[in-house]
Every structure is written in C-alpha cells, then in structure tokens.
Amino acid sequence: MKLKKKKLLFILFFFLIIGIMSLYFGYQHLKEVKQEKIKDIQSHYGEFALVQEGALLYEKRDNDYIQAGRVLANTILPMDAKTISSLSDTYFPILGTDYYLFYQSVVPALENHVTKLPDYYLNLGKKIITKNETKMYQKDRFILFLEASKEFEVLYADASYYYVFYMGDIFGIKKEDVIIEDLPQNEEEANYISVVEFAKYDSTCRNSSCISNEKVEKILESFQESGCYSITESEYLGWLNHDLRLKHGAILVTLEKEDAILNQSIEKFGYEVSNTKELTFVNNDSSTKKDTKKESVNRYFIHENMIEEQINKVIDGVTIEKPKTVVTGFSKGLPSIDALASNIAVLNYHFFFDSSANEVCPGNNCLDVKDFRAQLDYLKENHYKTLTMEEYRAWMYHEIELPARSVLITIDDGAMGTGKHNGNKLIPILEEYQMHATLFLITGWWSIENYQSPYLDIESHTNDMHTEGFCKNQIRGAKLLCMDKEQVMDDLRKSLAVTSSNKAFCFPFYAYNDSSIEILKEVGFQLGFIGGYMKSNRNQDKYKITRYPIHRNTSLNQFMNMIH
Fold it and tell me: What global pTM score does this model have?
C-alpha cells in the first residue's frame, strides 16, 4: 500500500515538473515572439521614413487611430521621436503634425531628407485655408491628401500654386483649392536686385573687356562682406512677379559664356551662376526694380578696371554713370586713372544758396547748390578722390603718394549755407556724395558744433582777426597783419584750442606777410593757404599754397580746366 502511494506521488510530481517546464518554455517562446515582433516594429522606424506603395494617414481619437488621409509611395517624411517598447507601438507620429503612419507602410529612409528654407525668404504676407480637404503637390505630382481643411502661411507662389512648409518639406497647393487672406508683412523686402555679368576670364587681364581671377575674388569678397547673397533665375522671377519676398542684398550672377575657372571662383564664395532662360538683359550698369520687364533687365558688367566705388554702387543698386563728354572750349585732357599726382588743385568756396528755394546771395563768392552738385557730379563720374586735410598734408610732406585725379575742397569762414545754423547746404551734400572737404572756420564767430560731419575737416581761419580794412597800408588790410606778435599768437592759440588741429591755416582775404608766416610756424601750423589761381605742388612754399577761388559765374568748363 505504501509502495503504491509513493509511486502515485512520484507520478504526480513528474507531471507537475513537466507542466512547469512546459509553462516556462511556453512563456519563453511567447516572450521571444513578442521581442521579435517589437524588433520588427523597431526596424520600420527611422528619423526619416520612406513611404512604401502608398500609405494611409491616421489621426488619434480616444485612443483609436482613424483614417485621415493618404500619402504617395516613395515620399520621405520626418518622424517624431518615439520609443518602441510594446506591441501596441505600431503607429509612428509625423514630426510637427497630428498625423500617424502605420509601421508596416514605411521603412527608414537611407538618407536624411532635410529641406532647409533659405534664410533670405520673407513671409509673403498671405494665409491660405484649404476648402474641405487638402491636396498637396511637388513638381506637379500629387503627393499628399488630407481629409480635413488646413490653414497655412504662404512661403511663395507661382502661376498655379501657393507653396507652404509642412511635414518637413515644401508642398504646393493649387490656387483654386484655397481661400486666401492677407497677413502683416513685418520686414521690409528688397526694393532692387543687382544682376551682374562677369566679363570673359583672362589671367593676364588689364582692361575693361575681361577679368582676372584675382579681381573676381576681390569683388565677390566685397559682396560677401556686405551681406549680399546669390539667387536663382526662378527666385528673381518670383520676386519680379510679387510671388516671392526677399531680404535686401540679392544678387543674380550671370555669364554670357560658360567658363569653368570663373564658375569655380564664384562657387567658392557661395554664389551660383544662373543659367537664365526667360530673361533678356541690357548692360547699362543699373539695378532692377519691381517694375522691370523680363525682356529688358538692367545688368551690371563686372570687369577688371572696376574701382571700389563702382563695386559699392553695384552692392547698393546705384547706377554707374559713364563720364560725360567734355563740352567744347575745354582744352585739358583727363589725367590717367593710374597716374600719380605731381600737382593738385585746391578749390576755394565761400557761401552756398539754393535758387530753387527762392534764396538769394548778393556776393560773387556765393555758389548755387545746383552748380556745386554739377561740379561734384563731374568729380564722381571721373573718379576723382576728394582729399582729407591729413591726406593732403602727408602728400605735401612726401609721406604718401596720391592719384593724379585728386582735389582738395576748401571752404572759408563758416557763413551762409555752410553750417547747420545758417542754411545747412554744404554738409548734407558732402554726406550724400560721400566726398571730403575742409572748412577754414573763424572760430570766435560761430560754434564748431554747427559743422560736425565725418566728411568735413575743421581748420583755423583765425579766432577773431578776419577784419578787412583794419590795417593801414596793408594789402586788403587784414587785422592779422598789423597786430603785435603776442596778440596774433594769442588769437591763433585760441583758434587751435577749438579746432584741435594744427595741420592747416588759411590767411583771411589771402593776405599775408613774412611776420605772419613766421608766427604760423612758431605756433605749429604745418600748412598755410592763400589764393593764386593755380594748382599747388610740392615745390611751393608750404605756407603759401595756392588755391582756385570758385565764384558764382565759374563755368563747368573753367572748373574742369582747374582740376585737370
């Protein structure tokens, strides 16, 4: 009996062990199946998903995934970060949306598909709302269908589509499928674009019909430092048609003939040569505006002999004007642009008025601002350098060389039209033209604060000795000529204290004598200016520098003869 009992217990124990082992191995098998299934789900997930054979889009509602759209096969979409740890993690969220893809419809994309929006695009200022459902395209190919109406801000447009950034890429939505609304435009767009054509490449170029690699890189470096960026023909056309808003600084680079060396240099600086097909150009060295017709697009011709001022005009969208033809009666020719100065014209002005504003000025030393502008235009068009007083002083003392096309503009006194308190004609014009001049100021008569400008140097014209008819038996009777030495020195030191510069002094009424020149030297002035109707040169007495007085009736021909 006991033996039977033991045998029965053994059998029960055996089957118990078998059951436990079966449960254990069954559990392990299920666990392995589960892990394999999770690994399979994980194998479909990637930072970017490639849609296979078309796929449904889903929205999550009350823990259920409801069909909400479709996406075409071979579309690459960015996936939101997701940890896959259970068999229920079978729907992958699309980055930046409320949509999901079922895992079996995608595989990881072999390459990351990143669409980076150009940072020079501005918001077009439009919002679109799709009608009932949303159909999205790329290159006229239907890509994405959403069963619901959606709202988007527009990046840009063309004749058929509004383009939006969605699901990590740019899609087009047909214009007839949307309702359009205006949005605020928070940033000012480019009001001009510079289109440039580079001349043919020549490594030894020395003229304006070609360009060297060194010059190309120098110009592109200037573009880059000024924040200019390269655009394509399609972007230019979009801007022209008001379908794309661009930041300031856009440049369209063109070549009439393909050139590998030029292409390499241009691309080195991050610029792209556009293969223009729809545009016809006019090489008139001007920028293009929004009213430009694509059949006659203004273009700058970039060549070896372009100077810095002209390059800046390209950057600023300013027309580069060709030198005007010299009128009859003018005898002297322009000096070579590469020649060095052996003599320099010093021009002497006094007062400025504006006849167009019904202003009058009784003296012969007055100059109408329209005539002053005409003279500055000539200087600018012919690439003259307007000198600072320091540049002129350094040249006179053989410390530097200057181009033959240099002039020194001087203004005496500080009266009508020269200061911000008495008409303010001079300084705004100098700043507009970005040209330098020197004012010889009677420092005791007007405050130096009235003449502050980076384009106007201030030097001494005495403190209070600009008095005509003061001295008997002296030419023009300047007070400076007949006061005792200490009085003159005291006046000049007061003037120096105001100007803080001893570079130059201008004799009142052009009147001087040996005593006054010696006092200038003793006080420390380095240059002295008079009249004389002739160019200055380095062999002159540095305290008797001659100048050309400019009068109301000085013609442009006479002005040209002075500076050439």
Answer: 0.52
